[in-house]
């Protein structure tokens, strides 16, 4: 409040009082005018301030909602912080490990990931037997994130078309290192902690299984024979079930696959298969005739593992699967069959 000061002890003179009254009146008039002006302008001013605040908040929220990633083919993409509608064909195993159910699932004709159908039974299948589904088909599922598990899926214009529908991330080969791929998926989906916990749990399972096998079947060798429509092969120790047994559980493979990911198997080289246990896979039920032909031969029956009853047909559903759920099932089978 505006006033007049005076020295202590000085006599308060009447003209000072008049001056005070005049000044006070001026102040009140000015205050009233400013107040009215402020009142008349405040809605617009407040609205502008509110809009600026909301705009700033929206910008910050948008930044939080989107993150920039570069995929394994070098594409830089903006991904929602927590995507809600994910399409990631052939990565359903890993998605489920993170607690994410896709909008559609991979299939080869009518064949899908049968071992996952308990959780995916209500998820529609998209057939990849003739190549990736068209953009029109995929668009009907309204994905907000597309993840392709191999660079092969992104060719022939697929990436360009899919990326117009939603941000599209491409792995070079997600099956090459399932744990690393799971970590990447965790980052893309805002599920890094879930990925970390899943991997830690898996490592614990591996350690426990290794201890049981080393105690009950030390030094034993295995062979994995895959019967398929195109032929018979021995699976090496670098991918799918071979990776789990050899690289994770530390079980030695037959010498025939020491330097091979896959080796064509014929009756002529069967006697060289030095394995204490043989695991047989009928791939998608398409190797039945070839399996019958080989296993009924006298050469097959002369193999020590066969004579000792250590030949087991295992499920192609997950022994040819790629993901920690499949790997855990493979471990359970291996421990059971090698230590009973």
TrEMBL record:
- Domain Fe/B12 periplasmic-binding, chain residue ranges per copy: 83-340
**Which superkingdom?**
Bacteria
Q: Show which residues constitute the signal peptide.
A: none
Keywords of this entry: Signal, Transport
Enumerate composition-biased segments (Polar residues): 35-57
Cited InterPro entries = ABC_transptr_periplasmic_BD, Bact_iron-sidero_bind
Query: Which Gene Ontology terms of cellular component type are present?
Result: outer membrane-bounded periplasmic space
Gene3D superfamilies for the chain: Nitrogenase molybdenum iron protein domain (3.40.50.1980)
Which intervals of the chain are annotated as region Disordered? 34-63
Q: Does the keyword RNA-binding apply?
A: no
Q: Which PROSITE patterns match?
A: FE_B12_PBP, PROKAR_LIPOPROTEIN
Localization of this protein: Cell envelope
- Record keywords: Signal included? yes
Q: Which Gene Ontology terms describe the biological processes this protein takes part in?
A: iron coordination entity transport
Q: Which family does it belong to?
A: Belongs to the bacterial solute-binding protein 8 family.
What name has this protein been given in UniProt?
ABC transporter substrate-binding protein
Q: What is the species of this protein? A: Paenibacillus lentus
Its taxonomic placement starts with:
Bacteria, Bacillati, Bacillota, Bacilli, Bacillales
């Amino acid at each position: 409040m505006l006033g007049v000061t005076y020295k202590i002890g000085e006599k308060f003179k009447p003209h000072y009082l008049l001056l005070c009254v005049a000044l006070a009146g001026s102040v009140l008039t000015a205050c009233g005018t400013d107040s009215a002006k402020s009142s008349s302008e405040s809605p617009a001013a407040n609205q502008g301030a509110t809009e600026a605040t909301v705009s700033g908040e929206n910008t910050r929220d948008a930044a939080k909602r989107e993150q920039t990633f570069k995929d394994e083919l070098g594409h830089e993409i903006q991904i929602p912080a927590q995507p809600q509608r994910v399409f990631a064909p052939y990565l359903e195993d890993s998605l489920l490990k993170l607690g994410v159910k896709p909008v559609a699932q991979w299939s080869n004709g009518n064949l899908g990931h049968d071992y996952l159908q308990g959780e995916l039974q209500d998820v529609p299948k998209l057939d990849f037997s003739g190549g990736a589904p068209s953009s029109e088909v995929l668009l009907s599922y309204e994905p907000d994130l597309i993840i392709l598990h191999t660079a092969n899926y992104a060719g022939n214009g697929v990436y360009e078309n899919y990326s117009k529908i939603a941000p599209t991330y491409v792995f070079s080969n997600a099956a090459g290192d399932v744990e690393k791929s799971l970590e990447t998926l965790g980052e893309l989906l805002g599920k890094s902690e879930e990925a970390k916990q899943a991997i830690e749990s898996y490592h614990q399972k591996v350690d426990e299984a290794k201890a049981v096998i080393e105690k009950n079947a030390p030094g034993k060798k295995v062979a994995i024979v895959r019967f398929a429509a195109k032929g018979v092969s021995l699976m090496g120790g670098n991918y799918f079930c071979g990776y789990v047994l050899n690289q994770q559980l530390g079980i030695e493979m037959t010498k025939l696959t020491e330097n091979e990911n896959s080796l064509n198997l014929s009756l002529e080289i069967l006697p060289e298969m030095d394995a204490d246990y043989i695991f047989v896979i009928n791939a998608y039920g398409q190797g039945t005739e070839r399996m019958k032909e080989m296993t009924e031969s006298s050469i097959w029956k002369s193999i020590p593992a066969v004579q000792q009853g250590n030949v087991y047909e295992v499920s192609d559903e997950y022994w040819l699967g790629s993901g920690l759920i499949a790997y855990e099932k493979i471990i359970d089978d291996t421990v059971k069959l090698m230590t009973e």
